[in-house]
Amino acid sequence: MATESMEIDDSLYSRQRYVLGDNAMHQMAQSSVFLSGMGGLGIEIAKNIVLAGVKAVTLHDTKVCETWDLGSNFFIRKDDVSSQKMRVEAVCSRVAELNPYVHVDISSSILDNNTDLRFLQKLSFVGYICVACGELIKNICQCGNKFGASCPPQFLSCDAFGVCVRVFCDFGDEFVVSDPTGEEPKEIFIQNITQSNPGVVTCMDNRPHGLQTGQSVVFREVNGMEELNGTVQHVSEVLSPHSFAIGDTSQLQPYAHGGFVFLMKTPKTSCDTLKHIFLNPSHQAPLQIHAAMLALDTFQEEHNRLPNIGCLQDAEVLLKLTEEVNVSVNAELVRCLSRTARGTVPPLTAAVGGLASQEVLKAITGKFAPLQQWVGCGAIGCEMLKNFSLLGVGLSKSSGEVCITDPDLIEKSNLNRQFLFRPHHIQKSKSTTAAEATYDINPDLQVEAHLNKVCPATESIYNDSFFSRMNVVVTALDNVEARRYVDSRCVSNQRPLLDSGTMGTKGHTEIIVPNLTESYNSHRDPPEEEIPFCTLKSFPSVIEHTIQWARDKFENAFVHKPSMYNSFWQNHPSPEVVLQRMKAGESLEGSFQVIKLLNRRPSQWEQCIAVGRLKFEKYFKRKALQLLHSFPLDTRLKDGSLFWQSPKRPPTPVEFDLKDPLHFAFVVSTARLFAAIYNISYSTQDLSEEVVASILSEVRIPEYSPLDKSVETDETAKKPDLIKMPVNSEEEREAITHLEQAISTCGITSGDALQMNPQQFEKDDDNNGHVDFVASASALRARVYSIEPADRLKTKRIAGKIIPAIATATAAVAGLVALELIKVVGCQEFESFRNCFFNLAIPVVVLTEPAKVKKTMISNIYFSIWDCWTILGHEDFTLSDFMNAVREKYGIEPTMVVHGVKMLYVPVMPGHSKRLKLTMQKLIKPSLDRRYVDLTVSFAPEADDEDDLPGPPVRYYFSSHETP
């Protein structure tokens, strides 16, 4: 079957498609994996590659289920152990349940040097990879040599011994990496290109280009030096973050204006052979672990076992073997490996299993750069629960508990990453379903499932008492605002927070520990750069602009206006009363816009089609004509330069053509959405080209005449609020007339006419026309401005703000967080904690110490974000009493008191001095069950010319009987 003809189940794989791309998805769907070793590491890899969607997986293992498998293999149950079932048989059906598109087979034959592996060549697939977990590296090498030349040997070997793990990959000496990074090439707009040798390219607005010496770039839309357009040029030298040198441009035409370059991805051949690097320590990192693991291989060969737990004699034998590898030896590391080699740390196998699984997908697809070639190292909520289960976190017999909360229901797209869920769980609660699945892994757990968001609206549930019962808080959130809120609650309640997130192949973890580290809110990422209003409205230059414009049109027409319309009539239920008040000269906010909607309200399908056709004329022809009327192509700025030069693109009006699929898609999707907000029914036949053409033949398109209006060109200007814009007397009279006509002619007094049905943008339902509208509108606007259009998949991702996700990164990040959980619960010192950033595509893993908590001093008193001062009050306690109590207890002069956004006392504010006599109860007005409030207090500086100093939160208790 040709790869381009294969259909991808987007409802299942949508998030993964954004990471891997369709070509890689097709290759995976035709590839098979032979996976040997069903221990903790093997089952992690099996889970991830089956979720990813390969064609077939053969699971291989020769061992029976044992008790300690329950602590490392989440698909083995107590019944499997008691019945002495083979491990591979126990896990097969559970692995197969993860993805109905993947065929899962098993093998329990002995795998050694005498095994005939030619059966792998008989499998029907484009590519294969052999993965071995827990096997000796040398055996893998020897097994690999048995593959014939017609099937390039692709191997991946993983081992996890206690606190040490390793991954090795060898995809053959002719393995080609088609896309080393997976990053989308960004357009770099050009300010200038010199006529010189070498030519120097300067970026517009001094924006950093992010290029590296030796990379290749492609030039487009350059004016003047047009010989460069479409050519591939090598970056001979990066001169600055904003300029770079290319080849000789001295003989080319002078650069005039405009143009952009984008990075060209160059396929490269990767991977040395195992023979070349197996015993070459200079290629390995980290050297100490590599040497110890090689010695461990030798120990197993000589003794046919791993070192015994805690055996000093075995440790010394392993140390001696390590010294023979001829590298400097860390004796304590080797002894630690010997003591723990028989054990398994589930979070560690989860982390390295995610990394190794990504290497499997690289071998199959050529997407992303493989490991070079060893690595050693000592959907997130589901993965986290699995790790908790295997670790024994929250055991009921130990009075432990795991509390999880999620307000969402399970969708099909979740099944690709959230392995606790199955197809029959779709539209069930995520949290309760996850809790039930977790019990299957470890019945001794105590899990409490909630259906709420953790936010200010649920503080009655997730109050301070709730947080005080938690030993640690683990988040798997998808937005910054939610993270900041949970972080603030953890800080105020002195609770450790383990935060993490993924985007595609990238992942990060952040460890926040009371009194040791800074918090999440201690650092601020730079805000996302907003697209200027004038750019969206009139001057788009890249496809992201047209997609955002289309999404804004959707929100305005099908969400904002219907919501505003409904809200207006809820406050003004009678059109007759509204008419009387308007005739009396009363100004009713929003009335002008509501009456326009009422006057233009379609009542049947034919009118919806007509609206779609008129919108097409307005958006893609008239707007362009008006813009060219305001700024003809020869318009020049005050400095004499052309108005229409990069990044501004002049528009080209589009003539409507029903035979153009894009034109048809826009009209029909627009009509469907107007039918939806006005509750107008239509049939499948009504969507046909014949019916639509018949309707459009009766639609009259008014003749265009240019308007005398200004066009906003200031990039700092904000979008105007149309509701609050002034309405002139003529518009008021017109609105009154339209309302009178609606009441008298149409008989509109109440009921359905006074209600609309807002359409909240739903990206994952391909039957509602939402993405159809945005995709067609964006592509048409891109055509108007000669911008390279995006396909539907990319448009859907950008418009829906979809975060690309893949199971391998999810598993890795959850494993890393669970490792830090062990340290937090074990009350480790600051030096033991590690934040992590990784990118499985490159691949790179960076471990760093968390930011150490900062101490601030006021008048010889040190405090940090984790400190909270307390004052005990009573019913008659005044603001003056509060300030005196702070002064006496902490020896600092308070100058200002704020509660949330309410200023309780600011001495320069008029009348605030009178507040000193008021009670705290009267000033704050707490609810009956409120025991305390956290106040922001500023203190007098030591020098007169300095500003007031903010101190830590001051927790004021309304009763002296409360216990802080």
UniProtKB/TrEMBL annotation:
Q: Which GO terms describe its biological process?
A: protein sumoylation
| Assigned EC number | 6.2.1.45
Please write the reaction equations for the catalytic activity of this protein: ATP + ubiquitin + [E1 ubiquitin-activating enzyme]-L-cysteine = AMP + diphosphate + S-ubiquitinyl-[E1 ubiquitin-activating enzyme]-L-cysteine
Q: Is the keyword Repeat in the record?
A: no
Name of the protein: E1 ubiquitin-activating enzyme
One Pfam family it belongs to: ThiF
**Which residue ranges traverse the bilayer?**
none
**Which InterPro entries does the record associate with it?**
E1_4HB (IPR032420), E1_FCCH (IPR032418), ThiF/MoeB/HesA (IPR045886), ThiF_NAD_FAD-bd (IPR000594), Ub-activating_enz_E1_C (IPR018965), UBA_E1_C_sf (IPR038252), UBA_E1_SCCH (IPR019572), Ubi_acti_E1_SCCH (IPR042063)
In which family does this protein belong, per the annotation? Belongs to the ubiquitin-activating E1 family.
Q: Which enzyme type, at the first EC level?
A: ligase
Q: Which UniProt keywords apply?
A: ATP-binding, Ligase, Nucleotide-binding, Ubl conjugation pathway
Q: Which GO terms describe its molecular function?
A: ATP binding; SUMO activating enzyme activity; ubiquitin activating enzyme activity
